[in-house]
């Protein structure tokens, strides 16, 4: 009889062509009637699950060979969705809202790839819905007399549920209800449902948490048959049990539990001894839950369905009934308990594991220690606590030595250790939040953490080499795309993440975390690194744990609250009882079931995490409800295209929307994760400290809105288009009027035209988010005090721009004669400068020129000549952007030198700097270095004005920038690689003084007869 996996493997073969059930029956040699019936049932089940397809000609094949994808739908509140394929190697599929065809979040579907967008992302459409994930919806009821609607709490269900008048069941407007879906949405019609439970009014105490419990489908109570089985568990352990099972007696050892003050399910205990040979002996003892929860029992089925215990703000939803979790399975002090033990011997110094032993045991813990008391003994040396546990003080000190040695060894091999603040919301008996307390990670927590980690690794490796079915905790390597994005992001701060080929060892990432510890960018890089990683999960194969830099890792230490731990305890017991192996039939049975347990446990873990986060967000929002209008200091924890998230000292997080930043128009720069002001060049990025005011709290969405303190209106400092071009445009010297009485163009003032501020060039991209802010405004810095530099490699210099903006507005109100506005740059206020990219690298053959272009000179007669004056520069000469000198007769001279002074010469010559200024007088010249944001080409410039001048072409335009040689002229012969023209008005726009133009003959007006 063939199995499901054998059938799938056969159909996935390259030579396979779709077959009928008779052809498949013949291929697999099925002759018995019972086998044939079972085979047909298997085909039907696989076809219903979407694992195989039945064609119109009654032939079977796999979806991937028919250009179809099987996967789970993940919808977005805005209406679109993504298909997460079962094939992990296949990229996600974007599904437009019009192509969802009534699917809801979590549904298992078959989809067809329909297109590939401009970014190379796949788009598709739903072909068939295989399995519905949403059968019940929790939401707020609205009564409309003859009918009603339920607005779902889950925002990913973006259509209301229609309720007929006869299905109200007494519900009134404002109550939270649970709805069973009768018909699912189709086209424009909404889903229809019936009310099955009324939770209470949305403002009643406890209804908020109850709604979250129902929303995630968490069970509140245990079925009767499960409780009956739990009641049969004994309260004590007899000596006969210990002898019959051959358990090792460890009741004489000094074993303790270390947990939080409010913990009741104590499932792990530890002991440490110093051996005569100088080595450490560590014992980790875990409650033997599998002895009381037998496989395929009602207790086991319920634990499998729950997957894990869920720890909400005000309650715990346990995986096992309290009779077991708080009773016979809990390692309470001074009572006998059955355990699974792992003893490990370590060499001091190297912390090398020299010996280990795994066995069944019985223990009796000496004390129920708390993290607080252990911390007081080891760190604070509290005399009262030390006296109370005097006989255990030396044991705890030995534990500290071993734990710190194990931690050092783990860090040395490259494990990644994130330091993020966690908090606990304290609620009163009515469920109202009264305080938010930060969780401390003291030496006591680290001791238990290190002991559990090394025990999990030891057990995983031991049973991996025994080649028995097992469940491992895996953490796959980050994808190359996300890793490269993070490395590029870290490079903006001057940090390099070293790797080999396309891979990066976790040690390199941990080294980076150590380098940034205590720096301003620590929060930024830690957050981005975490986001670049994949999510840890359970798997039947040992694929390693990237974050821990461990080749083998499992979860063996918490069988009371995690089902995978309970499942592998059964395997461990059977292997130990059968001399290190498994019978063949048992091996096949367990091997077939382990992938399903791993998948179910991973899914239930994600549900539990989502529920815990929802309740925490809810109570934090409620905690801030009476603090609207109060002011706080916070840290920017996230930057997006629609605003930035601010985290307060108490870990409460709120959003400042982009529309609420009223002092400027801000653009999101995805690469640097920053918001950059269009006019002021003000920067907001992750890790910056800001002062905020609580503006709004939305209890239906559990969100908090902040507003920035001292935020001025954009209209209060509005500038004209000419002024808004940036400092380079403020001091420009206009050319002489031509014969027609018009200006021939605008000369090059300080700074050059390519650094003008303005809108960003980057366009929106990917998943509905705008991903760029383009070049920042006002990229030149003049006068004033030196700016504050965040990082040497980042070159972000910030100064006060208020005075310069005031001067510019004054200048823009009146016309001025040529030369009348040649003012000293030192007299002007400083302006803000942002240079996000590092100083550009200049090729050897273009030294002294900006971006490889030769300096240009425009003389009085309009002819263009090129000169390389870099060698004539003084001691401050630089190889950056060529500076430009404007002389009083209107001619513009360019050379490659950099002048250390940023002031205007008395004779009216405006001098700008071509490299980073190093002024002794405190003033700084205009920086003309190449910007990260190149000028955009088009008929209009970034301000919507007609472009002036010809932009230079480059490889992006399909040319190499060359022009044919000139035919003579006053420039001393033609040049092949001639410098591009400066940014002036096109020559065609200048009227030619070639004499009087002939008059046009006007048509005579017709005579009007009276």
Tally of DSSP helical segments: 19
Mean residue pLDDT: 75
**Order of strands, widest sheet:** 3-4-5-7-6
Number of strand elements: 41
Mass-distribution shape = globular
Strand content: 15-25%
Distance between the termini: 113 Å
Helix content: 10-25%
- What is the gyration radius calculated from CA atoms? 36 Å
Low-confidence stretches: 716-938, 945-977, 979-998, 1006-1010
Quick description:
The protein has 1010 residues and is α+β, with helices and mostly antiparallel strands. The protein is 23% helix and 22% strand. The strands form 13 sheets. Strands 3-4-5-7-6 form a five-stranded mixed β-barrel. It has a five-stranded mixed barrel with strand order 8-9-10-12-11. A five-stranded mixed beta sheet has the order 13-20-19-16-15.
């Amino acid at each position: 009889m063939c199995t499901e996996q054998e059938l799938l493997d056969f159909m996935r073969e390259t030579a396979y062509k779709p077959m009928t059930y008779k052809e498949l029956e013949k291929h697999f040699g099925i002759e018995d009637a019972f086998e044939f019936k079972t085979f047909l049932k298997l085909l039907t089940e696989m076809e219903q699950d979407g694992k195989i397809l039945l064609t119109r000609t009654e032939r079977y094949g796999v979806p991937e060979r028919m250009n179809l994808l099987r996967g789970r739908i993940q919808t977005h509140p805005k209406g679109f969705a993504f298909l997460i394929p079962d094939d992990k190697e296949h990229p996600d599929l974007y599904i437009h809202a019009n192509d969802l065809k009534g699917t809801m979040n979590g549904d298992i579907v078959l989809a067809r790839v329909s297109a590939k967008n401009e970014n190379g992302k796949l788009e598709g459409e739903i072909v068939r819905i295989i399995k519905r994930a949403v059968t019940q919806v929790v939401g707020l009821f609205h009564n409309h007399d003859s009918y009603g609607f339920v607005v779902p709490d889950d925002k990913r269900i973006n259509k209301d549920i229609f309720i007929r008048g006869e299905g109200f069941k007494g519900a009134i407007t404002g109550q939270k209800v649970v709805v069973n879906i009768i018909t699912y949405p189709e086209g424009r019609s909404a889903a229809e449902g019936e009310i099955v439970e009324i939770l209470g009014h949305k403002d009643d105490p406890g209804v908020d948490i109850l709604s979250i419990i129902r929303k995630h489908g968490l069970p509140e109570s245990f079925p009767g048959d499960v409780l009956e089985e739990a009641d049969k568990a004994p309260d004590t352990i007899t000596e006969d049990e210990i002898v019959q099972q051959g358990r090792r007696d460890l009741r004489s050892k000094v074993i303790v539990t270390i947990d939080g003050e409010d913990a009741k399910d104590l499932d792990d205990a530890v002991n440490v001894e110093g051996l005569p040979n100088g080595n450490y002996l560590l014992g980790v003892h875990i409650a033997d839950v599998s002895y009381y929860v037998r496989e395929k029992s009602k207790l086991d089925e319920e634990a499998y369905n729950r997957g894990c215990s869920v720890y909400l703000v005000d309650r715990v939803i346990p995986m096992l009934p309290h009779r077991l979790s708080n009773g016979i399975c809990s390692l309470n002090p001074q009572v006998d308990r059955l355990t699974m033990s792992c003893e490990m011997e370590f060499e001091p110094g190297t912390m090398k594991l020299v010996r280990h032993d795994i066995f069944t045991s019985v223990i009796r813990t000496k004390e129920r220690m708390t993290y607080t008391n252990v911390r007081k003994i080891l760190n604070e040396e509290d005399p009262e606590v030390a006296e109370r546990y005097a006989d255990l003080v030396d044991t705890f000190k030995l534990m500290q030595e071993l734990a710190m040695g194990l931690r050092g060894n783990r860090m040395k091999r490259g494990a990644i250790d994130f330091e993020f603040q966690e908090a606990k919301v304290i609620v009163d008996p009515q469920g109202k939040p009264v305080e938010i307390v930060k969780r401390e990670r003291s030496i006591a927590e680290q001791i238990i953490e290190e002991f559990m980690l090394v025990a999990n690794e030891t057990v995983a490796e031991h049973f991996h080499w025994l080649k028995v079915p097992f469940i491992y905790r895996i953490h796959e390597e980050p994808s190359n795309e996300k890793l490269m994005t993070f490395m590029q992001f870290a490079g903006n701060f001057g940090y390099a993440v070293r790797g080999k080929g396309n891979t990066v060892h976790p040690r390199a990432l941990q080294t980076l975390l150590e380098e940034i510890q205590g720096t301003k960018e620590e929060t930024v890089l830690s957050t981005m690194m975490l986001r670049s990683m994949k999510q840890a999960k359970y798997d039947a194969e040992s694929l390693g744990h990237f974050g821990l830099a461990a080749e083998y890792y499992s979860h063996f230490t918490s069988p009371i609250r995690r089902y995978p731990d309970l499942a592998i305890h059964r395997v461990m017991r059977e292997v130990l009882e059968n001399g290190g192996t498994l019978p063949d039939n048992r091996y096949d049975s367990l091997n077939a079931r382990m992938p399903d347990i791993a998948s179910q446990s991973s899914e239930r873990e994600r549900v539990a995490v989502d529920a815990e986060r929802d309740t925490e967000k809810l109570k934090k929002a409620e905690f801030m409800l009476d603090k609207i209008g109060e002011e706080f200091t916070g840290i920017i924890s996230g930057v997006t295209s629609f605003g930035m998230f601010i985290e307060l000292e108490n870990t409460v997080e709120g959003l400042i929307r982009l529309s609420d930043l009223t002092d400027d128009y801000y653009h999101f720069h995805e690469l640097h994760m920053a918001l950059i002001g269009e006019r002021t060049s003000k920067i907001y990025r992750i890790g910056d400290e800001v002062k905020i005011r609580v503006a709004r709290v939305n209890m239906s969405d559990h969100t908090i809105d902040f507003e920035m303190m001292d935020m001025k209106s954009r209209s209060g400092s509005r500038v004209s288009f000419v002024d808004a071009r940036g400092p380079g445009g403020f001091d420009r010297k206009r050319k002489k009027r031509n014969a027609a009485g018009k200006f021939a163009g605008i000369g090059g003032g300080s700074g050059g035209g390519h650094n003008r501020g303005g809108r960003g060039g980057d366009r929106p991209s990917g998943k509905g988010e705008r991903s760029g802010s383009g070049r920042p405004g006002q990229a030149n810095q003049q006068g004033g005090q030196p700016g504050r530099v965040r990082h040497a490699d980042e070159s972000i210099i910030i100064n006060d721009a208020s005075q310069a903006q005031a001067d510019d507005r004054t200048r823009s109100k009146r016309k001025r004669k040529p030369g009348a506005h040649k003012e000293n740059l030192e007299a002007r206020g400083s302006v803000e400068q942002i240079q996000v990219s590092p100083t550009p690298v200049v090729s050897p053959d273009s030294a002294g020129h900006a971006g490889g272009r030769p300096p240009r000179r425009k003389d009085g007669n309009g002819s263009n000549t090129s000169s390389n004056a870099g060698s004539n520069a003084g001691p401050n000469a630089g190889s950056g952007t060529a500076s430009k000198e404007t002389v009083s007769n209107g001619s513009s001279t360019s050379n490659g030198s950099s002048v250390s002074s940023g002031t205007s010469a008395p004779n009216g010559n405006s001098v700008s700097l071509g490299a980073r200024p190093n002024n002794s007088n405190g003033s700084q010249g205009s920086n003309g270095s190449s910007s990260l944001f190149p000028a955009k080409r088009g008929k209009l410039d970034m301000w919507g004005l007609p472009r002036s001048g010809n932009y230079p072409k480059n490889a992006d335009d399909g040319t190499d920038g060359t022009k044919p040689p000139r035919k003579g002229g006053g420039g001393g012969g033609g040049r092949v690689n001639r410098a591009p023209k400066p940014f002036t008005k096109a020559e065609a726009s200048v009227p030619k003084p070639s004499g009087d133009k002939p008059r046009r003959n006007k048509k005579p007006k017709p005579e009007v007869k009276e």
